[in-house]
Specification:
The complex is a heteropentamer of chains A (609), B (127), C (582), D (155) and E (323). Chain A has 24 helices and 20 strands. Chain A has 609 residues and is an alpha/beta fold. The radius of gyration of chain A is 26 Å and the shape is globular. Chain A starts with 5 loop residues before the first strand and ends with a strand. Helix content of chain B is 40%, strand content 19%. Chain B has helices spanning 6-15, 17-24, 37-41, 44-58, 97-109, and strands at residues 29-34, 63-68, 80-84, 90-92, 118-121. Chain B is built from five helices and five strands, in the order ααβααβββαβ. Chain B has a five-stranded mixed β-sheet. The chains are: A alpha/beta (609), B alpha+beta (127), C alpha/beta (582), D alpha/beta (155), E alpha/beta (323). At the D-E interface, α2 and α3 of D face β8, α10, α11 and α12 of E.
């Protein structure tokens, strides 16, 4: 091993890669080569660093200096200054939204300080394609401990005591699930990792797999040992090619090292993992639909009364957990139950349902400054997540609502900002923990439009097997469409509510059972916005275009735009009249309110009232 | 690769230990060679090379070797600061290869600063 | 057993029984749409959702497949359940307006109209999946399935083309709750050559008078033999007497005598192109006409043309294929009389004109001539002349779609008779495998394929081979009375032989001396009576004295002289030769 | 008197022997030169009989059997039909005119045909003349020497 | 008591039988020490006069091989008959006529004419043919007169036993020798006159290793025309094999070497004419019922006399061709 004195950790998560972080890495290497520092400084690509908003990111260790928004042309200067001369470059450092100071140290940035890394413990520290890095950070130590010193029951006992609950969204206590799966009769048993992550806006499973695939594998080995399985599947969605590629490399390396396959650690325990690709159906995130898809059948959910732990994959006992759950297991085994129960809310000593322990990874997006991956202890308030870690709402806009749990979750208004984030309290508030998607909306968002957006998603993704979800969501969407087109009536709201309860109560699976949540929560917290849409045929946030009236400010059009006529050319209905250097105007009754003119006018001459 | 046993795990993590410590920024001692323009001109490159060779020879895992910009005292370049954990940093000046070798062996490894080469004990304020 | 309470009524049920079954036991009616007891519950219509109170938590579950595992309280008509049901029906009314069952259930619950817009008024499919499950799980044909997803989901065939795997069993139509699937026939037509006496359902008694009079499975129609699934008949048969794996078994018997009564084949008139059989409609052979007249036939015994109407005129042609240089020189003996019977039937059952074209009216039996006179009295037009050609009646003159061309030898003129239907009295010919059977039984078959009796006058039912007898048409064309007579004669002769208990063997037969025979097996293939067999272990041949007729062929052929007959030995013959030539 | 040939007839019991019997009962005349031996089937005739007959002084051998297909034993006559041509070929090589051996099919009802066959064959043998196998047996007194001596011994 | 006397003579023969006698290898020593070989012209220089000098019936056993085709053969045959107690016809020439008897297909003159005048490799300018007596300056030379017809030993003198085979197989000879020694030493009764020694009562097929099935022959072929199946009966492959009509005892050596049996061990016990019997058997298995086709098949049998009477022409019914 060459005695490097410094490592440049370049983030190679999907976000940064799409921002050319790999070219940046090459630039680093060339420059270091040119500077003759090749055998002193090593450039390493890591998984997603978490702060996606600031991508492409590089962190220079051991100094711990965090550089953001890097461009290729910055690299030579950076190498010379920092690596050669040892002088960090303030210009490329993180600048918090409010004050204008450069924060060099990564750990001092609010985004990172507020977080507690368990599932993302190796984030930014290891090269995901190198197993040695993972082992160096106590990797596979937990599976070694479990396989050589513990019995399956002890493992299950430990996980149950830790109060760990499913991070997929259901929040079912993992220990209880493992125990019932172990007791179930039938061979062979299967262990599945659900990496389908169908929620729009959620990308934490992706980052865990891209950044630290071995943590998932090690978790699965422990889980398989606990439930007595020798065959595991990881169901990765087709839209995560990089994650799948890294997983394949990790699996091969693990097999090569004998940490997967036959006779692991010479204990005679056999466990191997195979990858199955999800075809992109959101419904396949649901356990029984996922198993149907793995079996090669159409991904349709099955009646809930047959528990998958007894009759799962190919009708054999199957233990299915989310990526994040599997990644957390090794940490619990290594650092013990007391450490884990010290984090989070409630008391799980007698009953695992008693609280929400450990940390949860949220993918914060939408109207937020620090877009990215946030791992925070359970019990943290929404306010801390959004304003401290998240860095608040950009452009000084006012916070309006936060949507948790993806399309099956609900919208929480500003008054609930001090709500502690855990399973029970989120569900009470009408939303749900869900996979961990967190979308922040500000005053410019129209809640009816948001509800419509999420319902369009669930309606389109409905598998159509059972009538309530197939028919109910379609009719609800038609009603919302009517409202946003200004043709809604008061009875529509009543019908909407009835339909929502009908769909939740009668649907066969969780998709139908949670699709109406966005509608119900927006009705509950933002009912007045609905009434404005219906009564005044107006959209306060001016998002619902059919309700807007588009007019052109004459002097802006002439003074700034010199009557450029771009809007006139673009308008599909030819509803804008005017000549060069003259003020243009909109013929209201011809206007179809498509909003194209508003989009194309560079001089904001188009006014919406 | 033969099937791994637990001892193998130890060996691998031991072998890769230097990188992990490097990345965690934690280490028993930190040697900073000042690479300001004058430092480089005065030959601090050679100092770093010898230090790297020493680390390799002694197979030292927990010493962090880093560079910094100009320390301000151009006339006494090349200079380096040795900082043991929980001890005040010691700045060495007018370094040559064998001087730095001795410093490394006695101070960094042995824990006893080499007075004759030291300029001053204690450090100005560094973040 | 667990005790549960439904709508206040208590009941003890087995574990894992569904709420629906428990409710039925208490004759509480829970509506179902996508449920059928033959099929594993799919639980997609959700109309059967009921409230279940378990450990203080009420949950809404589908009654049709919720397995009762502990004592719970069930409410099938709480306000919340009824509200859900009403909404469900309202949605389905919008989805499938043409489905009557939905309208009825909605009316029952006091729902007239639906608040939702109706896109397709003619739609009647509620996507309950019963047809797909029936086709895939029960029948196993996989001809239909679900396509697309979400609200665009529909039942369709692979690539929306008519599926080859569909076996037209109609199970999907039968199980569809809204009548959305219907079976249609290609075209309704009676094809004479395809008439059969019984219905062609998969499991039937072949026809009324069938012996044995028990149902049997027609493998070519049965779903199980096509896809390996279904087997519903064995599920419902109380005495469990349905076995799908029965196969023809070959059993060997030690028998004393064989009576060959293998009957005859019908001559197929298709090669006689000029008659147009198989090309033009309404030209039948005698057998097909007979089948149509049988009360058990699909036409119920009525004489109808292929389009179902009654023929205006019928021609009956004698000697088709018989007394014919190109086909069979012999007279088939029976056609004249059944042709007359046909004429009588046509006259009796319809008022069609009948033309009887004969060459010689051979009414040779007792009462046959009198029957012929009766037919003449019934006004049948009897024409002495062979029907030579049948062509479609292009001109349309006269009441007949076909024209029968013939030469009326009595008036010496060629005639074209317009008729609607023609019956060809086709010849009787030997079974196609008669020669093989003859070789197998070591009896001989003549050039025409009829078996050769031991003596035309003195031994009509016995053959040259001991213990093998002939009866019926296999020995030559004859009608039923003669066949019955021959049958009893053959039986009598067989009984005579069997009653004796042993066969009188003549003294002469060949024997092989083991010490001389070296197993060269030259003799093995020579014996016409297969009397010589080869002993693999001792490597010598031996003669079965019972079968040997002592013809001496093998004696002459045996190169070592190991075979010697009990008479006509070499020594005797050489002695005769030398003595006679001295 | 002209040379009276000695002919051996081997007749099959079911057809030719019965045919001969029919010819006899029908008072049909045919030369007595043929002396007949009865066998159950023409298939019983062994070429050895023919050679032995010629050796024993027969000038011609007539074999009669049933018409092919009529054989009482189904295929007996086929075997004979195969053996006779090979025997004829042997006779030819042995210097004996194959016409001295003839195979004829005579059915039980063909009395007339039997008569014509026998008469025809007798005339044919008469034209061929006596067989007289030379040097058949060994004569101890004057074992034959050169050609002249042989001819001398023969005459 | 004096050693029994043994005489071995070779008449019209190829000498193979004498060699076969030597082929019994070590057993020849038993013969030597048990018998007193008094006459064996092929092996040692005996003179006819010595034999004439012996009393009658003084030779216990005479093994006479070779056919009788000249005055000398006949003279010595008579002589040995007179002098010996037991006269055995040794080998197929003596027993059945053997290959020499094929001469009966031709007259003596045509043979001499061809051999001395027509043969392609001849150099006989003087066109001389050996004469029974020729005058030479030294006096008159007589050579035995050749006969027109070759005879078997049995046809000229009374023969006690026959030992077939061309030559008789050495193991059979050894067996016969043992039997004779056993009879003479232990006074066992002699087998009945005329029995065939050194062979069994079965046909050659009994010892043939090939698999035999039902025969259906559509064409006869010569052995060189095909590569025969190693373990299938040759006749079934269309090759004319006389095994079925030949006595066994030789161990079917020819067939084991892939060549068809030629019938050298002579006719089986119940057969009077080996060739006729073979014709009967072979013709019967021709697979055809149509006369023309049968003629076509029979045409493929190359040389009936040479094939069916190769070793037994002299002993057959017709004995010689009428030419």
């Amino acid at each position: 091993m060459k005695p490097y004195r410094a490592n440049v950790m370049v983030c190679a998560g999907t976000g940064c890669v799409s921002n050319h972080s790999l070219e940046i890495k090459k630039a680093f290497e060339e420059e270091i080569q040119k500077r003759g520092l090749a055998d002193e400084v090593q450039v390493v690509t890591t998984g997603c660093n978490g702060f996606c908003g600031a991508g492409p990111i590089a962190v220079v260790q051991p100094d711990g200096i965090f550089y953001q928004l890097l461009k290729i042309k910055d690299i030579p200067y950076l190498v010379e200054e920092h690596l050669l001369k040892g002088r960090p470059v303030p210009r490329l450092m993180y600048v918090p939204p409010e004050e204008k100071i450069h924060i060099p140290k990564m750990n001092d940035i609010a985004f990172f300080k507020g977080q507690m890394l368990v599932a993302l413990r190796n984030r930014g520290m290891i090269d995901p394609e190198n197993i040695d890095d993972y082992i160096a950070r106590d990797g596979y130590r937990a599976s070694a401990k479990v396989l050589t010193t513990m019995t399956p029951d002890e493992v299950i006992q430990m996980i149950e005591a830790s109060g760990l609950r499913g991070r997929g969204g259901g929040g079912f206590p993992t220990g209880v699930k493992w125990e019932s799966c172990r007791k179930a009769k039938g061979e062979p048993r299967y262990v599945i990792c659900n990496a389908d992550e169908g929620d729009p806006g959620a990308f934490m499973d992706r980052s865990i797999i891209e950044g630290d695939p071995h943590s998932v594998l090690e978790g699965m080995v422990i889980g398989a040992f606990a439930v007595g399985s020798s065959e595991g599947y990881i169901y990765v969605r087709q839209e995560y090619p990089l994650a799948r590629e890294r997983l394949v490399i990790a699996i091969n390396q693990a097999r090569e090292y004998g940490l997967l396959g036959d006779d692991i650690f010479g204990t005679g325990f056999k466990f191997d993992v195979d990858i199955r690709r999800g075809a992109g159906a959101f419904v396949c995130g649901e356990s029984t639909a996922l198993m149907a898809s793995v079996e090669g059948r159409v991904g349709e959910p099955r009646a809930k009364y047959i528990h998958t732990v007894e009759h799962g994959l190919w009708n054999k006992p199957t233990c299915l957990n989310n990526v994040e759950t599997w990644a957390t297991i090794p940490a619990i085994i290594m650092r013990g139950v007391d450490w884990f129960t010290s984090i989070g809310t409630g008391d799980v000593s007698e009953n695992p349902w008693g609280g929400s322990k450990g940390t949860k990874v949220f993918s914060v997006a939408g109207k937020i400054n620090n877009t990215g991956l946030v791992e925070v202890p359970m019990g943290i308030t929404l306010r801390e997540i959004i304003f401290d870690v998240g860095g608040g709402v950009p452009k000084g806009k006012k916070f309006k609502a936060v949507q948790t749990g993806g399309p099956s979750g609900g919208f929480l208004a500003a008054e609930l900002l001090d709500l502690q984030v855990d399973y029970e309290q989120l569900t009470e508030a009408g939303s749900m923990m869900g996979s961990g998607g967190m979308v922040i909306m500000d005053e410019d968002n129209c809640m009816v439009d948001m509800a419509k957006y999420f319902l369009t998603f669930t309606q389109d993704e409905s598998c159509g097997k059972c009538a309530p979800c197939r028919e109910g969501t379609l009719r609800m969407l038609q009603i919302l469409q009517r409202i946003t087109d200004g043709k809604g009536t008061e009875e529509d709201l009543v019908l909407l509510e009835d339909l929502s309860h009908y769909v939740i109560d009668s649907s066969l699976c969780a998709l139908g059972g949670s699709a109406p949540n966005p509608v119900l929560t927006t009705l509950r917290y933002f009912r007045e916005e609905y009434e404005v849409h219906i009564r005044d045929k107006k959209c306060p946030a001016r998002v619902c275009r059919q309700l807007n009236v588009y007019t052109i400010d004459p002097n802006l059009c002439v003074t700034k735009g010199h009557g450029c006529g771009v809007c006139r050319a673009q308008c599909p209905e030819k509803a804008i009249v005017g000549e060069k250097n003259k003020a243009h105007s909109v013929i209201q009754d011809a206007c179809k309110k498509c909003g194209v003119c508003y989009d194309v006018c560079k001089f904001d001459a188009i006014q919406i009232s | 690769m033969p099937k791994l046993s637990i001892e193998d795990l130890e060996k691998i993590s031991e072998r890769v230990r230097r990188t992990t410590l490097l990345r965690e920024g934690a280490g028993r001692a930190k040697v900073t060679v000042h690479m300001g323009t004058c430092g480089i001109a005065a030959g601090s490159r050679k100092i770093i090379d010898t230090l790297l060779r020493l680390v390799e020879e002694q197979d030292v895992k927990d010493v962090i070797l880093t560079t910094s910009g100009c320390a301000g005292l151009c006339s006494r370049e090349p200079m380096a600061t040795v900082e043991l954990l929980q001890e005040a940093p010691v700045k060495y000046v007018d370094l040559t290869e064998d001087k730095i070798r001795r410093i490394f062996l006695e101070h960094v490894l042995g824990g006893r600063p080499v007075q004759e080469y030291a300029l001053a004990v204690g450090s100005e304020r560094t973040q | 057993m667990i005790s549960i309470e439904i709508d206040g009524k208590q009941i003890e049920v087995e574990e894992e029984t569904t709420i629906l079954n428990a409710a039925n036991a208490l004759d509480i009616k829970i509506p179902t749409l996508c449920y059928n007891e033959l099929i594993e519950p799919y639980a997609v219509c959700r109309i059967c959702v009921v409230e279940v109170i378990r450990r203080k938590r009420t949950r809404l579950v589908t009654a049709c497949n919720y397995p009762l595992r502990e004592s719970v309280k069930v409410r099938t008509n709480s306000e919340r359940v009824l509200k859900l049901r009403r909404m469900n029906l309202e949605l389905l009314m919008a989805r499938a307006p043409a489905a009557k069952i939905i309208q009825e259930m909605a009316a029952e619950m006091g729902l007239e109209t639906t608040r939702f817009p109706i896109e397709n008024p003619k739609e009647s499919c509620i996507l309950c999946g019963l047809c797909v499950q029936m086709c895939q799980d029960v029948v196993g044909a996989y001809a239909i399935g679900f396509a697309d997803r979400g609200s665009k989901r529909e039942v369709s065939t692979p690539y929306e083309r008519t599926p080859e795997t569909c076996i037209l069993c109609g199970a999907c139509a039968q199980v569809c709750p809204t009548g959305h699937i219907r079976m249609t026939d290609a075209e309704e037509r009676i094809i004479h050559s395809k008439l059969s006496l019984g219905p062609n359902a998969a499991i039937t008694i072949p026809f009324r008078q069938a012996i044995p009079n028990v149902p049997r499975i027609h493998a070519e129609h049965c779903i199980h033999f096509k896809t390996g699934e279904c087997m519903l008949c064995s599920k419902v048969c109380p005495k469990d007497c349905i076995h799908y794996d029965d196969k023809d078994e070959i059993e060997e018997f030690e028998i004393g005598a064989v009576i060959v009564a293998t009957g005859f084949d019908d001559f197929d008139p298709t090669p006689m192109k000029q008659l147009g059989y198989g090309r033009y409609p309404n030209i039948l052979t005698g057998a097909e006409f007979e089948q149509m007249n049988n009360a058990g036939s699909p036409t119920g015994g009525k004489i109808v043309m292929e389009n179902g109407e009654e023929p205006r005129s019928v021609a009956i042609l004698h000697c088709i294929g018989s007394r014919d240089e190109n086909y069979h020189k012999y007279c088939s003996r029976v056609c004249c009389m059944y042709a007359l019977k046909f004429a009588h039937l046509v006259k009796e059952k319809s008022n069609a004109e009948v033309y009887q074209l004969y060459v010689d009216m051979r009414a040779f039996g007792k009462g046959y001539e009198e029957f012929y006179q009766r037919i003449l009295d019934e006004g049948v037009n009897v024409i002495r002349g062979k029907g030579t050609e049948i062509v479609p009646n292009r001109s349309g003159a006269g009441d007949g779609a076909l024209l029968v061309r013939c030469e009326d030898t009595l008036i010496g003129k060629f005639r074209e008779i317009p008729v609607d239907m023609v019956v060809l009295c086709s010849a009787l010919e030997a079974r196609s495998d008669a020669t093989d059977l003859a070789r197998k039984l070591n009896i001989s078959a003549g050039a025409d394929g009829w078996f050769i009796e031991s003596h035309p006058k003195l031994g009509p039912v016995s053959t040259t081979t001991e213990g093998i007898y002939l009866a019926g048409v296999c020995q030559g064309p004859k009608d039923i009375p003669d066949t019955v007579a021959q049958g009893s004669a053959a039986a009598a002769q067989a009984m005579k032989m069997l009653a004796q208990g042993q066969i009188l063997m003549d003294a002469a037969y060949a024997e092989i001396a083991e010490e001389f025979c070296s197993g060269c097996r030259i003799c093995n293939g020579l014996c016409p009576y297969n009397a010589i067999s080869f002993d693999e272990t001792k490597k010598v041949s031996n003669v079965n004295s019972a079968m040997c007729k002592a013809c001496g062929t093998c004696v002459a052929a045996c190169p070592t002289g190991a075979i010697a007959a009990r008479h006509f030995t070499d020594e005797q013959i050489y002695a005769q030769i030398e003595g006679i030539l001295v | 008197m002209s040379f009276e040939p000695k002919i051996l007839g081997i007749l099959c019991n079911w057809c030719s022997y019965t045919g001969a019997d029919l010819a006899g009962t029908a008072r049909m005349k045919y030369p007595a030169n043929m002396r007949s031996v009865r066998v159950m089937c023409s298939g019983r005739v062994d070429p050895g009989f023919i050679l032995n007959a010629l050796r024993s002084g027969a000038d011609g051998v007539l074999i009669c059997g049933c018409h092919p297909g009529d054989c009482h034993y189904v295929e007996g006559n086929y075997k004979c039909m195969r053996r006779i041509p090979l025997t004829k070929k042997l006779l030819a090589d042995m210097g004996i005119d194959p016409r001295r051996l003839r195979l004829e099919w005579v059915s039980a009802s063909e009395g007339a045909r039997f008569q014509s066959v026998v008469t025809g064959f007798t005339e044919e043998i008469r034209t061929l003349g006596p067989l007289e196998l030379r040097e058949l047996n060994f004569d101890a007194e004057h074992p034959a020497g050169t050609a002249q001596e042989i001819s001398a011994a023969a005459s | 008591m004096a050693k029994p006397k043994l005489a071995i003579y070779w008449a019209a023969a190829c000498g193979g039988c004498d060699i076969a006698i030597l082929d019994i290898e070590a057993k020849i020593l038993d013969v030597a020490d048990f018998f007193d070989v008094v006459f064996w012209p092929c092996a040692m220089d005996f003179k006819y006069a010595d034999v004439e000098a012996m009393e009658d019936k003084s030779i216990t056993l005479t093994l006479f091989n070779g056919a009788i085709r000249s005055d000398e053969n006949f003279h010595i045959a008579k002589l040995l008959r007179q002098k010996s107690v037991v006269l055995c016809a040794f080998g197929s020439c003596a027993a059945d006529g053997g290959i020499p008897s094929l001469a009966n297909l031709f007259t003596l003159d045509s043979i001499l004419d061809y051999v001395y005048l027509q043969a392609p490799s001849l150099d006989n300018p003087g066109k001389t043919i050996p004469q029974p007596t020729t005058k030479v300056p030294e006096g008159e030379i007589t050579i035995p007169r050749l006969w027109n017809t070759v005879r078997t030993l049995e046809q000229v003198v009374d023969v006690d036993y026959l030992i077939p085979g061309c030559p008789p197989q050495s193991d059979q000879i050894a067996a016969v020798v043992d039997a004779v020694i056993d009879i003479l030493k232990n006074g066992k009764p002699l087998p009945p006159k005329g029995t065939v020694l050194g062979a069994t009562e079965k046909s050659c097929c009994d010892e043939c290793p090939r698999e035999r099935n039902i025969k259906k022959i559509t064409k006869f072929i010569r052995p060189y025309e095909i590569i025969a199946e190693p373990n299938l009966c040759l006749m079934e492959q269309g090759i004319v094999c006389l095994g079925p009509a030949t006595r066994s005892g030789c161990g079917a050596k020819c067939v084991k070497a892939g060549m068809p049996c030629r019938g050298c061990y002579g006719k089986p016990i119940n057969v009077r004419d080996q060739g006729a019997k073979m014709i009967s058997a072979l013709a019967s298995v021709i697979d055809s019922t149509d006369p023309e086709e049968i003629d076509k098949i029979i045409a493929t049998v190359a040389d009936p006399v040479g094939t069916f009477y190769r070793f037994t022409l002299a002993d057959s019914f017709l004995r010689r061709a009428q030419v």
